[in-house]
Design a protein that fits this description.
The chain is of the alpha/beta class. The protein has 12 helices and 14 strands. Helix 1 packs parallel to helix 7, helix 9 packs across helix 10 and helix 10 packs across helix 11. The longest helix is centred in the middle third of the chain and has 18 residues. The N terminus and C terminus are likely disordered.
């Protein structure tokens, strides 16, 4: 089901340029397990350019060709005054009519040139399902109807642009701008596969803000959010290019250290703890000192899933809390490293 606004499906043998790219974007939104469900209405919000290019049925072929050129689009919706959809007319329709009628094409109108049998979608339709229909039916444009009236027409390029924006939104924490838990887990799965196939070193650090509840109780949740945002900026500033910094919970953060030796990862993680402890986070009530505790675990050959190393890092985080906070605990076997050796 693509929506209640479907009329008759228009099929053809046209090549769908960019369909491979669309399929790749679809996989990006679907992610590792559950698909990130997006409605057409959300997709429209990411398309900044005008999306409704229409023309009246009585428009001449010359008016039609002029508007196609001026709007720089491949097709126009043919609508009545009240924007009810009559059909779709494309550059190919005009070209085909010129080949058939020659100069007499000027006698044709949008209504005589248009394709009446079109497929449309509505605001509540699923973007991925709609995109799949576009791919399967080899069509280039799909009208969007709201209560029977045309409000937009989406092209392949619109889907590509919107998917890039949606992918970024789906993988970004809205408060801090860091990667969110979903993005962190996707990166972790990819690096886990590299570790399993090529024994590439991999470490994970999990951090928790010390006494964060006390901050919320004293200053309120708004200031608490400011504190988290400021903390995220410090952690982002201290990271290296290959490292993934993410907010994975309320006041919980994580750093993925791909292809990094265990001792180097421990040094970098402890450096983050140290720099956060030196920082004074600016908020609406003034500067607030903050510390974090962390646990760092190293991927081992016997780890069967990424969850194994995450659980160890989480257990080490609790040891850091028990040890007095504002410190990093990491797994034993790392000799000469900084911080506290967890046994």
């Amino acid at each position: 089901k693509i929506g209640a606004e479907i009329t008759v499906i228009f099929t053809g043998n046209r090549e769908l340029s960019g369909s491979r790219k669309l399929n790749e974007n679809q996989r990006c939104i679907e992610g590792q397990s559950e698909r990130y469900v997006v409605k057409i209405q959300e997709l429209l919000g990411f398309c900044s350019q005008e999306l409704l290019f229409d023309i009246r049925p009585s428009a001449s072929s010359q008016e039609l060709a002029t508007k196609l050129r001026e709007c720089n689009v491949g097709a126009l919706l043919v609508t009545n005054e009240d924007r009810t959809l009559k059909g779709v007319v494309s550059e190919r329709d005009v070209t085909r009519a010129f080949a058939e009628h020659g100069l007499k094409v000027t006698e044709q109108t949008a209504e005589t040139l248009m394709t009446e049998e079109v497929i449309s979608c509505c605001l509540e339709d699923d973007v991925v399902e709609t995109m799949t229909r576009i791919n399967n039916l080899n069509i280039r444009h799909i009208p969007v109807l709201d209560r029977g009236r045309a409000i937009a027409m989406l092209s392949i390029r619109d889907f590509e642009y919107a998917f890039k924006s949606l992918q970024k939104q789906a993988l970004t924490d809205s408060l801090t701008g860091l990667s969110n838990r979903r993005a962190f887990e996707e990166n972790l799965h990819s690096e886990f596969e590299l570790h399993r196939r090529f024994e590439a070193p991999l470490s994970i650090a999990i951090f928790d803000v010390d006494h964060f509840k006390r901050c919320n109780d004293t200053y309120g949740h708004s200031v608490g959010d400011q504190l988290l945002s400021g903390l995220a900026r410090v952690m982002q500033r201290e990271r290296k290019t290959t490292e993934v910094v993410a907010r994975v919970g309320g006041e919980e953060f994580a750093i993925l250290f791909p292809r990094t030796r265990a001792l180097d990862a421990a040094r970098m993680a402890e450096h983050v703890v140290s720099q956060v402890g030196l920082a004074q986070i600016s908020t609406s009530v003034g500067k607030i000192p903050v510390t974090i505790s962390g646990g760092l675990s190293v991927m081992r050959q016997w780890d069967k899933t990424p969850s194994d190393v995450l659980q160890r890092a989480d257990a080490l985080l609790y040891k850091a809390k028990d040890a007095g906070r504002n410190c990093l605990m990491f797994e034993g076997g790392i000799k000469g490293g900084p911080g506290n050796i967890a046994t």
